[in-house]
What does this fold into?
Amino acid sequence: MSVKIQCGDEGALIGYLYDEGNAQDAAAIAAHVASCAACADEVRSLQATREQLQAWTLPDVALGFRLGTESVPTESAPQNVLRPARWWQQPLPAWAQVAAAVALFSAGAALGALRATGVAPVTGVSTASAASSVSTPEFAPVSARDLTALEERLRAELTPKADASPHTVASHQDDEVLLRQVRTLIQESERRQQQELTLRTAELVKDVDAQRRGDLARIERTFGQMEGTTGVQVEQQRQLLNYLMRVSQQKPQ
Amino acid sequence: MTLTDEELVARSRGGDQESFNQLVVRWERPIYALAYRVLGREEDARDVCQDTFLRAFRALPGFKGEAKFSSWLYRIALNLCRDWIRRQRRAPVMQMPEDADPVEMVGERGPAESIETLVARRELSEVVAAAMARLPEEQRTAILLKEYHGMTFQEIADLQGCPLSTVKTRLYQGLTVVRRHLEAGGQMRPRLVKRA
It folds into this structure.
């Protein structure tokens, strides 16, 4: 009984490729491959792939494992005594990785919370003291927050004096003086910011203008080149036309 | 006189450690090769290889000899590789040995091989490894067992616990993917005749 081979039968082609199967099947596949260009090419291609796979080489390592006891390691190659991988060499199971991540996150969160409350047991430097230690430049623009902080500080400094003083009538006047000072500071800050804005705007306009002029000069130069090229071409065409006219007007001899 | 695996297994089961050591010497390199090509890392492959023989030694009293000793070892190694990959939660990535030096290797391979040939060979090795790493685990294992360990379709089917036809399909599909990868990388010429 003859074996029927369906064109493109993967199992049959693989059996033929590895020369594994009974002789009758092998003969039938060989006959089909001999007459079918697509299957022949498929087999050739798979065979070429197999040859390429042989290029995958192994690193040259010395193994030499031996059964041995932990108590009597081999002096020459103690690492080759068969013993299970150490616990720290084995990959952590998923639950342990999750636990480690949670612990790390919790520690970070706790540290963040401590810093937010101004307590820094590790460094001994609180956020408040760190903020106060930052010296403000003499000519730095004053922001509204700075002014608020200043107001609060001044109030804090003045309040005990007012409490201590028996003449509490003066506190109202002090507040007005303080408010005037704050308003003055705010006005100065706004004026400085206005000046800065004007300066920046002027610089921006200057940059844009310089860029525009440069672009215009480049465009003008390009147009000039194009006009020159066009002029030369027009002149050549004119000469050609004149020549043609002269030739056409000549009388045949 | 060289003893067969079965004879060495019988002696090992009787308490002869030296016989088991002979089995280790005989099979450590194939097992290491399999583990290295599945895992892609030297150290991991070494650990898996070591664990394979340890487990085999401990389980030796329960080994009834229904399958070949080598098939039994391969099964243990493959299970360990699978566990390793699952625990690592990472795909196999090929890694060249850190201390590999092309100039030294030229000397090892003889004067006839130029450094260009050597570099080309290593590049091809890396490309093949990368192509194999792209395959699903079943296809990769089927190709490894067939191409590098010379197993029959039936032996692979027994190891993978699947029908013989499935092994053939895995081999065909795996080889096709590797071929496409090599064609795309310029290591192989594209096919001349395209099937309709």
Chain B has two domains: 1-95, 112-196. The mean pLDDT of chain B is 83. Chain B is about 70% helix and 0% strand. Residues 112-196 of chain B form a domain with the Arc Repressor Mutant, subunit A fold (CATH 1.10.10.10).
